[in-house]
Amino acid sequence: MRTQLLAIFCFCSIYLPAQSSIGVRGQVNNLDAPLIQKRDLFSRQFRAAFSAGFSVMAEFPLKKNLFFQAELVFRENKTHYRLKETNPTFHTSKMHYLRLPLLLKYQIPFQKWRFGFTGGASLGYALNARATETLVIGYIQTIESTKLSLDAEGVNRFDFSLMAGIGLDRQLARRLRTVLEFRYDFGLIDIMRGPISTFYNRGFILEMGLIIPLLKESSTNK
User: Fold this and answer.
1) Where along the chain do its domains lie?
2) Using CA of residue 157, residue 162, residue 167, residue 171, what is the dihedral sign?
3) What is the pTM of this model?
């Protein structure tokens, strides 16, 4: 599915107007997943967990130094915790999201560098989820992985968030730029449908990638 989405995005990029750009990015985030297995977790101890993702993007100029940017993102949310027991048990919950950020970006150019501010909204849809349990007894580890039903877990598949970030990109060649951007994703929808618990997709995202400007070729008089 990810390969098909990337192919569609690349095909559509052929018809983008001149002076637009396309690109690919990788990301690391600290966004959590709310899913837990049905058991006693009153003594759980949470640990930091970082997840990865990737995206394809298209950038359209609006005015001088002002751009509209649309992205198609596949990312993973992860939560990792440990039960305080005689034989430690580690749990990892993962959710996979497809997201569509629609952003405005303002850039301040300086020689080959561009310092930018980004802001906008992001639509999200949860694709699937999985829970992994690791039981450690001495030197023996027992790992059990279970595919979870989002409906059974009471998860709202649709999500909406606001995004803001700052970034820096540099011109590497006439048709190639590299970008580094730091964002915060502020979820506005409680994705847990139950009345007892609430959960919002909120966290930091660090992205790095390559951008290819679609420069308009100059015509020559014959």
Assistant:
1) 2-213
2) positive
3) 0.79
